[in-house]
Amino acid sequence: MSTDGTYLAVFLSNKTSPRWRAWDAMSEEDRRAKAEAGVAAVKAWDAKHRDVIVYGGGPLGSTKRTSLEGVADAVNELTVFVVVRAPSHEAAAKLFENHPHMTIFPCDAVDVMPLLSGPSES
Predict the structure, then answer these.
(1) SS3 sequence, the chain?
(2) What is the average per-residue pLDDT within 22-38?
(3) Are 95 and 84 in contact (CB under 8 A)?
(4) Pairing of strands 63-67, 109-114
(5) Within 10 A of 40 (CB to CB), how many other CB atoms are there?
(6) With the C-alpha atoms ordered 74, 77, 78, 79, is the resulting torsion angle positive or negative?
(7) Which end of the chain is less congested by CB atoms within 10 angstroms, N or C?
(8) CA nearest 95: which of 51, 58, 61?
């Protein structure tokens, strides 16, 4: 297995955290205004980083987990994902410092990991 400088970034949100409780406690008008500012900031981030975005990803919906026990609804902290290209793991992670999903929206963190094989290696 090898990496070609391609990284998966997954935004994490604990929907029971104080940040989410504060978000949920906002008035509908305040939340809408903040969301509009957040969407504009994410679009600006995307435009600034368009040269390194391999796949724009997007928001993630509800989860079904398949295990030896079968299929069941599950809850996790995975919220949004994007695939980027960077010269190193550290450089890929630094792309997400102060990302609008954390500074405006109530996401808690971004996990960044190398993709160890591409479609031709599977």
Answers:
(1) CCCCCEEEEEEECCCCCHHHHHHHHCCHHHHHHHHHHHHHHHHHHHHHCCCCEEEEEEECCCEEEEECCEEEEECCCEEEEEEEECCCHHHHHHCCCCCHHHHCCCCCEEEEEECCCCHHHC
(2) 96
(3) yes
(4) unpaired
(5) 12
(6) positive
(7) C
(8) 51
Residue whose token pair is 């031709």: 120
49-83 residue pLDDT tens: 999 999 999 999 999 999 999 999 999 999 999 99
Taken as a whole, the chain contains a residue count of 122
Q: What is the CATH architecture of 6-117?
A: 2-Layer Sandwich (3.30)
Paired sense of beta strands 78-85 and 6-12, if any: antiparallel
**CA atoms within a 13 Å half-sphere pointing along the CA-CB vector of 64:** 3
Token couple for 14: 């604990």
How far apart are alpha carbons 27 and 97 in whole angstroms?
Answer: 28
